[in-house]
Specification:
With 157 residues, this protein is mostly beta strands.
Length: 157
């Protein structure tokens, strides 16, 4: 994998979304490179995720390692993005996408410091995608499960 570039500076208020009296700001940004190796086509399924540039005060630098991309600030690793795959071969099963995914690990101190400075609370929304079918000969149906973690579901009036 070869990757390089610069993430432009982003003001948190430019990406904030309002929900009632809440203001929600994403902690990560999604990057879709222009081109992927056609022999690693599954990487085109997910893109790459990085911490939002406003989470830190200094410039982020990106380093491609053997199996992951590392984000560093002042020569300290603050995050690691990695993709995965399972049993990718020339054949695919029915109408299922390839079994691939990715994850981003961010140092918790980066999130905690941003939350303290911005007087905010870190929480996250989670979407889990799956597939099921009634019979072994049937078409797969996509299912999505959503969860909200780190904040209350209570509505105060």
């Amino acid at each position: 994998m070869h990757f390089k570039g610069t993430l432009r500076l982003i003001n948190p208020s430019d990406v904030a979304e309002s929900f009632g009296d809440w203001s929600i700001v994403p902690a990560v940004c999604w990057v879709v490179p222009y081109d992927w190796n056609r022999w690693q086509y599954w990487r085109n399924q997910n893109g790459i995720y990085f911490p939002m540039p406003f989470l830190v005060q200094d410039r982020m630098q990106f380093y491609v390692r053997q199996n992951y991309i590392e984000t560093r600030v002042n020569n300290t690793c603050i995050s690691r993005w990695q993709d995965w795959r399972k049993r990718i071969d020339e054949k695919r099963i029915a109408n299922l996408p390839p079994a691939t995914g990715c994850f981003l690990k961010i140092k918790s101190s980066i999130i905690e410091e941003f939350a303290t400075v911005s007087k905010s609370n870190y929480c996250w929304f989670c979407e889990i995608k799956g597939y099921r079918r009634k019979h072994s000969f049937g078409e797969f149906e996509k299912i999505n499960c959503y969860d909200f973690l780190g904040a209350s579901n209570l509505i105060l009036q």
